[in-house]
Write a structure and sequence with these properties.
Layout: H1 3-6, E1 9-10, H2 21-32, H3 44-64, E2 71-74, H4 77-94, E3 101-105, H5 110-118, E4 125-129, H6 139-145, E5 150-154, H7 168-177, E6 181-185, H8 197-200, E7 204-208, E8 219-223, H9 251-289, E9 294-295, E10 306-310, H10 317-322, E11 327-328, H11 344-348, H12 353-356, E12 359-363, H13 370-393
Parallel strand pairs: 1-11, 3-4, 3-5, 5-6, 6-7
Antiparallel strand pairs: 2-8, 7-8, 9-10, 10-12
Helix pairs in contact: 2-9, 3-9, 4-5, 9-13
């Protein structure tokens, strides 16, 4: 058997995507041939590194319809979310604003929820809105929350567990119409959906390279220039990245991010079409073998590669995963995987704890092969039947 046939079927692309070979090729010279600090513009190697970083910034900006100078590089979406939310709040507080309300959703990434809750200790008012059973925001709930003067609204573009796509343009229009800034965590949306910060009315947008077939350890925050959005930096330093994110830029990672963004912009439609075919094939195979399996989240308003599936029969998803070692899937967000509690995202949809514990998150990506989908469907079905038999025998 080939090495590919011996490797587990990787269906956890929401947790991280593999680096595209083109990304690895673009990065390699900047580890070896030119390792200069891009801030060292006094010499030729530094200027060459700076030029490559700025070219990468342009590719990231093009992916979201921004100007290059509106892109601030960070270590990833978690830092970007912290800088956007805490930075906006602290700058506003320094200007003695009377707006103290910050609105988000119960299904947001953990780092967004923690940012918003942390700001309560600084005198802000966190408001965490519920979602409908399909995972989407009820516009009326947001409209009611915005009746109180609001500083910031933060809503994830694509949920990292259930894959549902929020109507970001409409939500942004509501927020800005009420005088609030609008931020979106687009880590799961970039490379999967067309994004245009200008057309969609977005003020702040977070990205992470390792969700778009780039390297880990690098991300970006879009910060609108017109009208200008002002942020307080999270930490002090040499003033890099417009003074918003001090620290030496990791040129190889930035350049890899740029290449990942360039490829994503060119191949997004092809990737999503292929992912939808693979997802539908996998779902059909599992439905045939596991009667009563259920998809969580809106069936239409979701990214192509996502399946969030509740298994019937009182099984535990962790037990099914243990019985299917040849398949890489998850039970929810990788950032919350150490928690013994059932997914808070699924609980927000109204799932009882036992059903939340019986749920798998499956993420199909650019490099998921038909052979992997076939092997995964067969092994997950076998594992479910095995666990069911063990339960019946007890």
């Amino acid at each position: 058997m080939s090495d590919a046939a011996n490797r587990p079927a990787y269906l956890d692309n929401h947790a991280t995507t593999p680096a595209d070979p083109r990304v690895l090729a673009a990065m390699r010279p900047w580890w070896e041939a030119n390792f200069a600090n891009p801030a060292s513009i006094e010499h030729a190697m530094g200027r060459e590194a700076e030029a490559a970083v700025e070219a990468a910034r342009g590719h990231v900006a093009a992916l979201i319809g921004a100007e290059p100078r509106e892109v601030v590089f960070t270590s990833g979406a978690t830092e970007s979310n912290n800088l956007a939310i805490k930075g906006a709040a602290r700058f506003a507080a320094a200007q003695s604003t009377e707006r103290r309300r910050i609105i988000t959703l119960a299904t947001e990434h953990k780092c967004v929820l923690e940012c918003v809750r942390d700001l309560a200790a600084e005198g802000f008012e966190p408001v965490v809105l519920p979602v409908r059973p399909d995972g989407l925001l009820d516009p009326e709930a947001l409209r009611e929350a915005l009746a109180t003067p609001t500083l910031l609204v933060s809503v994830m573009a694509v949920n990292n567990e259930i894959g549902v796509v929020q109507d970001i343009a409409a939500i942004a229009a509501m927020a800005r119409g009420a005088g609030a800034l609008f931020h979106t965590d687009a880590a799961q949306a970039a490379a999967r959906l067309p994004l245009d910060v200008e057309a969609m009315g977005i003020d702040l947008l977070s990205l992470s390279a390792h969700k778009v077939y780039g390297p880990k350890g690098i991300g970006a925050l879009y910060v609108r220039r017109r009208p200008r959005v002002r942020l307080a930096p999270l930490f002090s330093g040499g003033g890099q990245e417009r003074g918003l994110r001090s620290g030496t830029l990791p040129a190889p990672l930035v350049i890899g991010f740029g290449e990942a963004a360039r490829v994503a912009r060119l191949e997004m439609r092809l990737d999503e079409g292929r992912a939808a075919q693979q997802r539908d094939r996998l779902l059909a195979a599992l439905e045939a073998e596991i009667p009563g399996i259920r998809v969580n989240g809106d069936r239409e308003r979701r990214v192509a590669g996502n399946l969030n599936l509740t298994l019937p029969g009182g099984v535990d998803a962790q037990a099914v995963m243990a019985a299917a070692p040849g398949v890489c899937v998850s039970t929810g967000s990788a950032c919350s995987s150490a928690s013994v509690e059932p997914s808070y995202v699924l609980r927000a949809l109204g799932l009882p704890a036992d059903e939340a514990r019986a749920t798998l998150r499956i993420g199909i990506g650019r490099f998921t092969s038909p052979a992997e989908v076939g092997r995964a469907a067969a092994e997950l079905a076998r594992a479910w039947h095995s666990v069911r038999h063990q339960i019946a025998a007890e």
